[in-house]
Backbone:
């Protein structure tokens, strides 16, 4: 029986070789690697999560099916591992991460406390909303704080993410073709009231904004300023986040400075470790083929 189980299973050396040659879903030259490797883009994590929670069903799912409030750092760590596995891992690793997410989503359902409406995590609209917040936030942060992106580059980044979204359960016909279309859909959901900050979302936001008592709250607020700068005004107000012309001008100056200084930052500090690992894998593959 043991011998039959092992038949057809690649050896460790074979698996390692295939892993070395496998660039994953994206790879060198992709907009995905170029944008997602930036540590600066991680500064938008707060914006993406607050936008996600602004969908009442997402907030209900997080509140009812996770320990986020008790372990916000653990949630962040797991999210980053999953995100970077998809962005920079081999195809096998990326597929495994997506499969794990789908398995979790299959068990998540319930009722939104504020409205009594039922929800399921596998609802295609919810899945697209979560995906859209990640795409939109990454593009806004990169375009503002790293370097300007053309419309074509933004649309290419969106297109590259399409296979990931469909594997996660977003129907292909629901997926927007352009970033303009994606942002129009997001704005319509906010304007219609389908997306709005519920008391559940507001309570969860405390763990997003202030995950620990130390450092003091004003330090955490400073950490989140980059994220706040790309959030819609009505979302900021709904979460009770103060934002005005003074902060807007200050963050414009910050953006101007980061665009100048980032090219001077060593790659070891500027880019996330997952990209460095993926790049080494790609270079090894290029070396083998030459």
Residues:
């Amino acid at each position: 029986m043991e011998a039959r189980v092992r038949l057809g299973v690649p050896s460790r050396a074979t698996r390692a070789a295939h892993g070395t040659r496998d660039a994953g879903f994206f790879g060198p030259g992709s907009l995905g690697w170029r944008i997602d490797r930036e540590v600066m883009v991680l500064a938008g994590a707060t914006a993406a999560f607050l936008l996600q929670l602004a969908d009442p069903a997402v907030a209900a799912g997080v509140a009812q099916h996770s320990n986020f409030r008790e372990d916000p750092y653990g949630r962040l760590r797991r999210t980053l591992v999953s995100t970077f596995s998809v962005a920079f891992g081999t195809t096998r690793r990326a597929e495994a991460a997506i499969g794990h997410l789908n398995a979790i989503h299959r068990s998540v359902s319930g009722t939104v406390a504020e409205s009594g409406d039922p929800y399921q995590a596998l609802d295609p609209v919810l899945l697209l909303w979560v995906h859209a917040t990640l795409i939109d936030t990454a593009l806004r942060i990169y375009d503002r704080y790293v370097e300007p992106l053309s419309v074509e580059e933004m649309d290419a980044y969106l297109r590259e993410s399409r296979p990931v979204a469909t594997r996660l359960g977003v129907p292909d016909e629901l997926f927007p073709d352009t970033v303009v279309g994606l942002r129009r859909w997001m704005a319509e959901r906010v304007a219609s009231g389908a997306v709005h900050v519920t008391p559940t979302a507001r309570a969860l936001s405390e763990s997003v904004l202030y995950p620990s008592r130390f450092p003091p709250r004003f330090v955490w607020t400073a950490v989140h300023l980059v994220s706040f700068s790309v959030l819609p005004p009505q979302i900021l107000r709904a979460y009770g986040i103060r934002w005005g012309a003074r902060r807007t001008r200050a963050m414009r100056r910050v953006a101007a400075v980061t665009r100048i200084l980032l090219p001077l930052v060593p790659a070891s500090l500027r880019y996330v470790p997952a990209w460095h690992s993926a790049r080494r894998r790609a270079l090894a593959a290029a070396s083998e083929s030459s």
